[in-house]
Structures are given as C-alpha cells and as structure tokens.
Design a protein that fits this description.
6-stranded mixed β-sheet, 10% strand, ABC transporter transmembrane region fold, 19 helices, 584 residues, elongated, 4-stranded antiparallel β-sheet
Amino acid sequence: MPAHDPPADARLLTAYLRPEGRALSALTGILVVAMLLPLAGPVLVGRFVDGALHGRPSHELALLGAGFLVTALAGDGLQLLVTWLSVRLAWRVGNSLRLDLCRHALGLDLDWHGGHSAGQLIERIDGDIDAVTTFSSTAVLQLLGNAILVLGVLVISAFIDWRASILIAVTVAAAVAIMLRLRRLAVPFYDEEREVQGRLYGDVEERLGGLEDLRANGAGDWAVHQLHRNSAAWWRTARRAALRGDGSLSGAGAVFAAGSVVMLALGAWLCRRGELSVGSVLALLRFSQLVSDPLWKVAEQLAEAQKAVAGTRRAARLLATRSAIVDGTAELAGDRSLTAELRAVTFGYGTGHPVLDAVDLVVPAGTSLGLVGRTGSGKSTVGRLLARLWDTEVGTVLVGGVDVRALQSGSLRRRVGVVTQEVELFRASVRDNLTVFGATTTDDATLLRTLEDVGLASWTADLTDGLDTHLDGPGDLSAGEAQLLAFARVLLADPGLVILDEASSRLDPATEDRLVAATERLLRGRTSIIIAHRLATLDRVDAIAVLDRGRLVEHGPRAALAEDPGSRFRALLDASRVAEVVGQ
C-alpha cells in the first residue's frame, strides 16, 4: 500500500479476504442453505399440531415428523460444515496477516524497536491477530448466517400474519440498536485493554530476560511490584470494557422478553378471533425464539468483535508505520571481499551526544582490522553502521565503495555477515538454524561440510536425527557450540565483509582454540573487522584501530603498533598481559 495511504481496518481485512474469493463464495452458498433449512421446522410443527387437532391420518403426521427430523439434522450438519470451513478460512487469512506483520516489523529501524519490547511485538503480531482469527472463525456463522435467518423469519412470518412479522421486525430492530449503541461506546475501552495487555506482556518478557541481574541487585521486590501495577491496570481496563460491553446484553434481553410477551398475546388474540390456528401461533412463537436465539449469540460475539476491531486497527497502524531507514536501489558487485569505509562519521543514536565523533576509517578489501577501545568507545556502533542497522547522522558509510544508503537492504545484508557474543538460535531444526529457514539455499552435503569446517563434526555426529534434529534454543548447546554454529551460518551466506563483535568474549580457552581455527576459515579471502576486548584474538589481524570516547585516536599496522612503546595499542597489550598474570 502507498506510504501516504495508511490502511484502515476495514480495508485491511478486505485486502486479505480478496484472494479467498472462491472460498468465500462457496461458504456463502452453503451458509444460505444451512440457515434457511431450520425455517421449515416451525412450519412443519405448526402443521403437525393442526393436523393432530383435526384428526389427520397417522401416516401424514409421521411424514411431517420425519420431515422435521430430516430438516433439523441437515441444518445442523450444514452449520457444522460452515463452522469448519470458516475456521479454516479465518486461520489462513490470520496467518497471512501475521506473516506480513512480522515481515514489516523486522523491516523497521532499530530506533522503533527500541521503543517496543519483544512482549509488545508478540502481542501485536500474535495476540491481536489471534483475537481477529477467533472472532472471524465464528463470525461468519453467527453474524452473516443469523442475518439470513432473521430475514427468512420475517418473510415466512409475513405469509402467516403481517402483524406478527412487523412485531418481530420491531423487536429485532430495537434490540440491535441497543446492542450496537452500547457496544460502540465500548470500542475505545477494548482498544485500551489491548494496549495495557501489551505493556504487561512486554514487562514480563523484560523481567524474565533480566532475571539474574534483578536477583543479583536485590530488585526482585521492585519487579514484583511492577507486575502488580501492570496487572492491576489490565484488570481496571478490562472491567471498564466489560461493563460497557455486557450492558448491551441486559438491554437486548429486556427488549426480547417484552417482544415475546406481546407476540404471545397477539397470537392468542388472533386465535380467538379465528384468524390463526393453534399451529400457526406456535409457529410464530417459535419464529420469535429463532430470532432471539441468534441475536443472543451475536450479542455474545460482540465482545469478541470489539476486541477483533481493536486488534485490526492496531495491525493497520503497525503496517502504516514506516521505517526511518529508506531502502536504496543499488546492488553490491559480486566481488569476494568488500572495502569498508567511514568518512567523517558522527553518530549518537539520536541523543545529541555522539558515540562516534568525526571518524574516518578505511578497511581495504581482503584485509582484517582489529577494533579496540574501552567499553562505550563506539566499537560496536561501527559494525552496526556498516550493516546499516542505523543510518549515520553526519558523514558517509560505504561498503564496496557504495554509500550504504543507496543499497538495497537485501543486497547489503547478503554481503555483510555479523557474529556477536549473543547468538540467536531458533526453536527449530539444525537445518533451519543454519539456513535461517531457507534464506540461504544449499544442499545437505554442503551444510554438513560447513559444520565440519567450523569444528562441529563430532557434535553433528551425535545428533539423533542429523540435520532434522530439533533445537530448543541456546540451552541445547554450549556457548562455544552455539558460537561455532553462528560461524557456520555466516560461512554458508558467503559474505564479502565479516564483522565479529566480541565473538569469543564468553568462551573458555579450550573452546576458544576451536573458535580461532573456525575464525581463520571464515575470514580467509574476506574483509573482516574484529571487535574485541581480549587482545589475544587479534594476533593475526593486519591492522589495528583504537577508539577512545568516539574518536579514532590510532590506526596502523598491527605489528608496527605492537612494537611501538608509545602507541596506545602497545599500552593496551601491556595492560592485558598484566591482567592475565594477576588472574592466574
């Protein structure tokens, strides 16, 4: 959809339902038959009663009874079929919407993600759409089907007596008006409830993620207090929404009760005057019940409808959100290695306080650079700008000689590989973890060979189902194995620029030896930037760049800087050696 035309909730659902046109047509046809069949029941019952009162033959009464049974069973069977078809349709549409929401959210900039926790995103992409799917899977039968039923009741009752038809129509109109009016007032409160629910889930996710830090700093009571506050806010908003939503049920119930009394009185009066038979009065009374029953079901669904409307509106707002990073059109050339360059780059994550300050840095193609400095000096920010996770505020970032802002994000991400100390593993098979669910296309033989290249041959041999073995996240691997798996993932993508951000900071020496061998395999013939606190991991790099408070204070060949007693890198080397001796 155009950026200047954000999707409204109704247009959003229409857009996703349009490809299901054939399924909708077939569902509608079955639905019409399923809802009209029960209308024959009251007519047959009325004729049965009149026939019994007038002494009709038993075989005629038996036929009427059999006809009633057949229509009732056929109607119930078709309604069950409609429910099954509508559930399948609703979930197909819901899953398609989930996929697009997830894809859209992944394409938004990190500044946006910084303001939305993982719990909030789960609520937007799954919770809201689950409300839409749950409602839609029953709405077809409860709303459209019952509308057909009400129309059929009005038509057939008009043939029996026009006054009764008018009474049913007035009762239905009054009940619907009350329900819609009160439910409309409840919509903002259901929307607020979903927002508060999203904040609660986001808070829970953040607290669980930082559980160890909370315990270590004695902040457990504070975390529990925050949970109580968010839970109380959710309860208050849910209560306000329920009071306004359920109020419509009481109003509609009073209208239906009055309508039933008036219908019974009208039928008795017409029967005494000889204008209606007893069977006709029973049929009209049954028709009034047929009208009230579906409307009660619709009323019960309206609470879910309001949640679905709120969820659809929020989905539309998310899809209307535009990333601050605008995709370019250029593609990177197919060279094996790529140059990386920062020209007068100043960047501070929008805070006004630069993390990088006028940095000029060039990493020639096919060379390796060790990037060092104190914590907070801007090392990781360099990697993020080269991968275009953020756009620089001042200056230019180039990869392969092209401004990253001019490149297609897909082209850039395919050619730039990033490995951090925090390895993300999916709850999926080994194959899906390596190929990122098919983003990298290759055969199983290549996958196995790559695992062997990074030192995971013995680990692979122990897998019960080979590449189809399911992983339940990082807990199924040691820190070293997870890091090596991340290396294999990048190796399969065959990037021209590799950025290793503290990739060995959490490993023991034995595992680090395996990682060093895997690193040499990964970086061979590629441009690489290695960000590290442990300077021993930089023994084989070509050059060193030292950052201090966002400024590039030293840059040169590693060997020359290591031998220069006055260099900052030499001072860092000496300090790290002293720390190792003290640690021993």
